[in-house]
Each structure stands twice: as C-alpha cells, then as structure tokens.
Amino acid sequence: MNIHEYQARELFEKFGVATSKGHVASTPEEAEKAAAAIGGSNLVVKAQIHAGGRGKGTFTNGFQGGVKLVHTPTEARDIASKMLGHALVTKQTGPEGRVVNKVFIAEAVDISRELYIAILVDRATSAPMIIASTEGGMDIETVAEHTPEKIFHVSVDPLLGLQPFQTRKIAANLGLRGPLMTQASKLFTALYRTFIESDCSMVEINPLVVTPDGRLLALDAKFNFDDNALYRQPAIVAMRDKEEEDPREVAASEFNLNYIGLDGNIACLVNGAGLAMATMDIVQFAGGKPANFLDVGGGATKDQVCAAFKIILSDKNVEGILVNIFGGIMDCNVIANGIVEAAREVGLKLPLVVRLEGNNVEAGKKTLSESGLTIISASTLADAAQKIVAAVKAA
Ligand code: ADP
Ligand code: MG
User: pTM of the full predicted structure?
Assistant: First the structure.
C-alpha cells in the first residue's frame, strides 16, 4: 500500500522527522486559505498523486509541472485550479497520467544542498538497509547507473536497531558536520522509528535538503507499507486512497485474491502464484498476451472464484479466458461451481478453456459438462495455452 505526500508528512510530524510546514487542499479556495494560513511570500503548490517525478511532469491540459512556486494566496488558488481535476503525466504514471484530487501547499524553503535517504528491507541480508546519497532531487536509479560511488549503504541489525555510530557515519558520508550532524542523527533515528513502527517496506526522502540557514528538512516523501502487516496498522489503512489504485485490484483485494492487471487479451485464473507465473509464460509462448496475473489461492471458496471471474471479465481487453487449476488443497469442484455460477450471472460469451487436474477433478469436470456452458477442455498446460490462443484468434 502507498500513501500521498501530505499523509507521509503527517507521519513525519508524528515521529519527529523535520519537514517544512504545509496544508492539504481539495479545492482552489482551500488552497488559497491554506496559503494564507502558512503565510510568507514563498510557497509551493504540489500535486498529490501516488507517483514521483511530479516536478518534471505535464498535465493533460498542457500545464507544465506538478510542483510550482507561488508568492501569494491568490496565485496558489490559480495554480491549484490548473492542477485539480486534471491528470498529471510523469515518468512513473504511464501515458494516461493520474488525476489530481488534492494539492499540498507548503512553505518553500531555500535550498543549499539536495540529498537522498531511504530505508528498505534488503532481501540479501533480511534486514533493514539505509541507502543515502549526496545526489538528491533526482532519480536514485539514474544516480545508481551513472555515479554508483555516490550511493552509501548501511545495514541495520533489526534487533539492535539503528545505532548512533551508524547515523553519524551516514551523516559524515553526506557531508553533514557540526550542528547538521546532530540534526541528521536525530532525523535518521526518527525516520528509522517511522519505518519500523509503521511496518514499512520502504520509506524514501528525496530530496532531504540543507537550507542556507543550516536546517535539515524532508521536502518530499514516499512510503510503501507491508500489506501483510496492515491488519495491525488501522491508522495507515485509513490513509488508503482507492482512487489511486487499479479498480480491478481494489475489487480483488476485497475478496483476498492476488490480482495484478496487465494489458494483454487472455485472462488467466489460476491457483498458486508459481502456477500463475508459469501459465502467463506459456500463454505468451503460445503467441498470446496475458491480461492479468490472478492467483485465487490454495483454499478459495465458490464466492471468491465467482468474484475472480467477474473481475477478469470487467476488463474490456479480455477476449478469452484460461482457467488452469491444479487441485492440491483446492477442490476442483469448488472451482467448477464458481465458474458455472459466474458464467451464468454475467452471460459469458467469450471462449473459455479449462484445465483441471488433481483433487476431486472428476466431480469438477462433471459440473462443467452438465452446466450447458460452451467450455473447451484441455489436458495439459501446453494444450490449454494453444487452445485459448487459437480460440481467441478464431473468435
Ligand atoms: P517529485 O519528486 O514528485 O518531482 P518533489 O517534492 O521532490 O516532487 O519536488 C521536486 C523538486 O521541487 C524538489 O527536488 C525540490 O527541488 C523542489 N521542492 C519541492 N518542495 C519544495 C519546497 N517545499 N521548497 C522548495 N523547493 C521544493
Ligand atoms: Mg521527490
């Protein structure tokens, strides 16, 4: 799960990570009021979407830049009206962009240096890893490609936590000395607490800035949370913005299905993530393009299968469906009943290839054959992939 920058700043305030002052707004009038409340003549208006690269983005109405400097509340209102309700296209959004429903109005600060810091879970060490760089304000991927020597890594022992000698080492690597080192140690410690106590899988500050008057501030923030820990993070769950998510994925998550939308034309309904990956590969190999990854899990119910079926059918690009089930724990007849119910409810007209194998397969096949639905049955995975590709071509 991701959150918006304005929500990230709320977490920063809660944990004591220094940031610039700001308020969120949903209308141009609110933006004007927020600007007046913050005061001063240097403010930024920032489009709130779940994607980075906003500063260099373009709105679909032609307006340039999702991070804009303004000097008066009236100007803040005008800029907000150019952003709100329009889609912002950045390097991370894809060509359709993301519609901006909120803007964040913040105090603009003078910047002497832009730095980068992130904490993530490192799979190699199974421990939190801090990544820092003197090259803030740009993509860390670009820095990693061209000047990898400007990136520092510090691995944190999860039982000991982030140690003072480590915060000083990161600060020194970033060229932060004297009072700035003291501020940095405090900020890194607070950031580490935010990361641990909020069950993050990643938190990133880009840029972390040094101001000419010697302050260290987080000006942007990105969070990823571990979905498996959300059950104990109700305050984080409350920050979820479903409008930022693929509606098919939102529906799938309500039924505890592992669904990822893709842009092909052959929908796949599979049990088990490994089998789902193999199915997508073999569809591709047979000359088709998968429309989704969908793992209904090991112990899916009829309702879940039915919901899964409807979600894959809600995708207009889908021209055919491949069901590939290996019943280990899964009862093939449960899948068969789910398919029949969903197909009847939605009046299925697309070609449907089903390959069932394993636990209670005979009952499953009987349910399908007695249903009166037109189902192409397949014996092996390769056979199933070839049949759905051929059926879609013929349709
Ligand atoms: P994004 O990463 O999505 O482009 P940022 O919040 O990082 O958005 O903003 C882009 C750039 O705008 C920053 O690298 C920084 O130079 C500038 N900026 C952002 N917020 C402020 C602020 N409050 N004051 C001054 N400059 C800012
Ligand atoms: Mg940024």
Answer: 0.82
